[in-house]
Design a protein that fits this description.
isomerase activity; PPIase_FKBP_dom; rotamase; seven-stranded antiparallel beta sheet; PPIase_dom_sf; EC 5.2.1.8; mainly beta; 116 residues
């Protein structure tokens, strides 16, 4: 029987809901992570996903929005999580593309691997 999903609430307000707990390594802010992801606005509209870009994406974890830097470090390779990002940990008052200023965001992330 699978354990119930666990949730980490970080001091910044970021919520990490572990949907599948990975069994691999856990990244640090200095790592490059390979992920599948889907980002949605509060109304459920998808604004971005790795599938739109042709498959998994790789990012230096210290060069993305704070919500990702903080939340993905709580994951292990092979894991899936839902990150709830308060606006201050996402794009704040600047907004980006289809994301209005001061918008809370949700990401579903699958951590596929870690590089340097």
């Amino acid at each position: 029987m699978a354990a119930a999903p666990t949730t980490d609430k970080l001091p910044s307000g970021v919520i990490v809901q572990h949907l599948t707990v990975g069994t691999g390594a856990q990244p640090t802010a200095d790592d490059v992570v390979k992920v599948n992801y889907r980002g949605t606005l509060p109304n459920g509209t998808e604004f971005d996903s790795s599938a739109k870009h042709g498959g998994p994406a790789s990012f230096p974890l210290n060069r993305v929005i704070p919500c990702w830097t903080q939340g993905v470090q709580k994951m292990k390779v092979g894991g899936k999580a839902k990150l709830t990002c308060p606006a201050a940990t996402a794009y704040g008052d600047r907004g980006v593309g289809p994301i209005p200023p001061n918008t809370d965001l949700t990401f579903e992330i699958e951590l596929l691997g870690i590089g340097k």
